[in-house]
Automatic annotation (TrEMBL):
Protein name: (2Fe-2S)-binding protein
Main location as per UniProt: membrane
Cofactors, names only: [2Fe-2S] cluster
Superkingdom, natural source: Bacteria
Residues passing through the membrane, by range: 15-35, 55-76, 88-109, 129-152, 173-191, 197-216
Ranges of residues in domain Rieske: 232-328
Gene3D superfamilies assigned: Rieske [2Fe-2S] iron-sulphur domain
Keyword Plastid: no
Subcellular location: Membrane
Family from the record: Belongs to the bacterial ring-hydroxylating dioxygenase ferredoxin component family.
Organism: Candidatus Raskinella chloraquaticus
GO molecular-function terms, A-Z: 2 iron, 2 sulfur cluster binding; metal ion binding
GO CC entries: membrane
Amino acid sequence: MSVTLKPVIWYRSKLVYDGVVLLAMFLYIIAYLRLAPNLQLVSRPIDDAILRMRAFGSCAFLLVSFILAIGPLSRLDRRFLPLLYNRRHFGVIACSVACAHVYYVYSWYLNLSPLNPLLALFSANTSYGQVLGFPFEIFGVLALVILLALAFTSHDFWLSFLTPRLWKSLHMLIYLAYGAIVAHIALGSFQGSGDPFFVMIVCASALGLVGVHLAARSVSRAPEGTAGDDNWVDAGLISTIADKRARIIDLGEGEKVAIFRYDGKLSALTNLCAHQNGPLGEGRIIDGCVTCPWHGFQYRPEDGCAPAPFTEKVATYRLRRDLDRLWLDRRANPPGTRVEPLPVNEGVADGG
C-alpha cells in the first residue's frame, strides 16, 4: 500500500538490515587495524592514532561508495532492490562513521595547538595557491557538511516540507560529497605518510563504483528501433517483457516510461514515483498495483492512481502493437488518466 508521512517504524527487516551493516562495519575496522600495520612502509611507520583515523575514514568512504552503487546494482540484478528500501539508513550510518573519523582527527592533530581547534584546522595549511600542497582538510569539511545535511533531512518530513523536486536536488549533493572525499584522500596521501592498504581500498572502491555505473548505463538504454511517426516510439518486443515486471523506455531529456506486463495486459506509466521520483520501472506488480521499489508507493497500472484512500497520481501513456512489436506514444497523459490496457495475445510467448 502507499506510504504516508509518519515516524520511522523499525520493522524486523530494518533491524536485521541495520544490524548486518553495523556488524560488517565493526569487522572491517577491526580487520583494518590488524592488517594495515603489516602493509605499511618500514621507513615511514604510522602510529596507532593515525591508523584509527584512517580505519574510520576509509570505512566511511566505502559506505558512501556502496550507497552510490546500490542504484546501478539494482538495475543490473533485481536481487539488490531490497537495499533501496533502506538506503537512507545506510546514509545516516555513513555520516556517523565520518563523524567518528573527524573526532579522532580533531582530538589528535589539534588538541596540542595553542589556537582554537577549529581555527587551527583552517590555519595550519594556507597553501591555497598550490596543487599538491592545497589544504586537503577543506575537502573533508565540505564532504562532512553535505553528509550531515543529508542525514538531517533524510526523514519523510523533510521530503514533504522541501517538496520532492527540491529534496531530490539536495540529496544529489552526495555525488559532490563523494568527489570531495576523493580529493581529500588523494591530497592527504600526497602530503602525508604513505599507507598502501589505505590507497588500495580507495582506488578499488572508486574504480568499482565507476564500473557499475557504466555497466548499468549500458543495460538501461532504450531498445533500438524507428518511430512510426514523430509521436510513436518503438518499445521493443512484447515477448521479452517479464510478467509483473516492466521495460523502461528512455524518451530523452530525462523522460522515461515504464511499460508493465501483468495479467495478460500491458500498461505504461511515467517511471517517476510521485513520492520521491523513485524508479517505478524497477519495481513490480504487487496486489495488482505498480509498487515503487524505494518506499512502497503503489499505483494502478491502467490509470496511474494510488488505491484509496491515498491520492497520489502519475502520468500514463498509450500503447499500440504490431504483432509482437510494441509502440509507445511519447505524449504523456495528465496524471490519473485512465488508458485501456493493451491485451497480450495468446500467440505471444511469455517473457522471461
